[in-house]
Amino acid sequence: MPMPRRARTALAVLLLFAASPAFAAAASASAYDALAAAEARVAAIGFRLTTANADWCPVRQPQFGWIWGDPRLYTADRRAEALRAYGAADPDHAFVAAFAPGSPAAAGIAIGAPVTAIADTPVPDGAGEHPFARITAIETSLAARPVNEPLALQFGAARVATLVPVPGCASDFRVEANAKAGAVADGRLVLVNQGLVDFAADDQELAAAIAHELAHNILRHRARLDAAGVDRGLGKQFGRSARLFKQTEVEADRLSVWLLAGAGYDPAAAARFWTRFGQRKGRPLFQAGTHPNWRDRVAALETEAAAVAAARAAGRPLRPPLIDAPPPLE
Length: 330
Ligand SMILES: [Zn+2]
Prior knowledge:
Helix content is 46%, strand content 14%. The protein is α+β, with helices and mostly antiparallel strands.
């Protein structure tokens, strides 16, 4: 999928600078600063969506409001530049790359400080593992803890911070340095491309895109599609597999509007985002099988936003669809 225009312009500027060795370092540093800024926005939106909607979610986890970082994510020649964007001086230890304002992480953590122990257990050095393995292990073990249990983190040799988490819908968040306007949800993680953060007109639209991915996780779409035996290869575009993928897209769209409402975002932001996303230049032509037509999506999102407005006007508590008993995938 080609990049949105703004990302293309930014890339052209970077290439221009990169052609001159004197500017190469400065241009790279600013690219990592932009990534760190995108992570801060996604951390804030993810924390708000998961914690405000916690009572609706069938599976919950402690939320701290952070996104993790790891020096191992960067190739050796870029590592020092990348770590500068986080103020991280230690090349060996995982660190918190971003946190939501007002979150538990914001109460005791410095961005980029080396995390040496979690709950009295030393953080392994991660040597020889896939670059993402260490922070995936950290996120997974923390998600399994009781939702309210205080957590001690040790930084460097001595400093310890104790954080009290907030119960939230189960999901962690990350940003990938990828210019394509996309995102994925694998059941436990919402991975947002930097290109999608750039594409969103504002935080309301970005929240709409993230709420769609979070809805996939809440509705356990990845596991349920796998259990239904769908074809994730070329056959995805056809027949039963395509129909089931499309069903999960429709469900995620519907729930996303209620997640926005529950977190105090504008429920109409979903229709705004998916209209612009559907109309963007260079959108792929090959999702016809697995994704509804964007005009149908927007119409359904507007119907859902109207249902939220009707419930509010009548003074009824909001009750999101699907979340308690999603229809079977068959
Ligand atoms: Zn989707």
